[in-house]
């Protein structure tokens, strides 16, 4: 679907979407309210009255874009401009006296350019057309930045690129010659053989199995495992397999690349929240939390697999992992991940302690190692290969329904 500047469409579900561009859209053309607004120019004043906007980021602000935003009052306002190539999400702000004095909230989000490695370039969100959820003013909202009188426009230099102190690499890429750049591109293409369009962990992939998604946060989401490990004991206690994946929204091979140059605290915190929520849910059904993850620079899309374990199997976890690892030359040690470490397998035990093994790029690492060992621990070795654990669509739907029902009270995103 192509949406030209100034055009407005309404989806069958009742969402109204519009976009703007400088030449083809003046604010006098804008009509009515919209749910989602797209553009490449940043509205004047949008970075005022808020925290967290990187001071080193230099952006050209446009008053025409502000005019359009003021008129259309979008619930989500997305801006993406390859010149700035920055991800930034403003704190929400509300409008007064809209729709018969109902309040309305705008979320402004700038996305980086398509497939940018270190910056988020897509955004997943829930929008409910029947109930205006945004009418509930979020706790972190600010005063409407458009409602205050603007100071004179910030002068812009010729070089209006981003100078991001946290990311010196970007500058070096901007400055390097086209020749090196294309060389680099070719190299990147080789490494990233799976792009987000064909990645089964990327929400931007239209073919992703949405029936398995069970919770969506800001930086991570939760999905049931495809072909899950199903232990009879677990299922009788929990009512579903409970084997889930914690997946970052960003298409990155390691957790380190996810937090590189950005606000790592936010990512770590949300992942932790999912871990705690799952732990609490399992515990309510007499089960224990075990998770494992593989971080490899040439990996595709990092994620953490979480599997609930019945009490009588807990004492087997550490010894079985160490023993099975030894057979394959995977030396699991009772330690944390070293700061500088990027390539490793990590197992988290029910008491939150971790077993870690470094995995060099030169050695081949069995990606099914974690699952295979968990199958041994749970006494269901025949389920070692997930491809042999095919579920029908209705089985998947039932599992997801049962899981969500139990997770609901612990899900912090609801
Ligand atoms: Zn991906």
TrEMBL record:
Annotated spans, Disordered: 140-161
Cwf19-like protein C-terminal domain location: 335-413
Residues of the Cwf19-like C-terminal domain: 190-322
Polar residues composition-biased segments: 140-150
Listed GO biological process terms: mRNA splicing, via spliceosome
Organism: Sugiyamaella lignohabitans
GO molecular function: RNA lariat debranching enzyme activator activity
Gene3D superfamilies registered for this protein in UniProt: HIT-like (3.30.428.10)
One cellular component term from this protein's GO annotations in UniProt: post-mRNA release spliceosomal complex
This protein's name: Drn1p
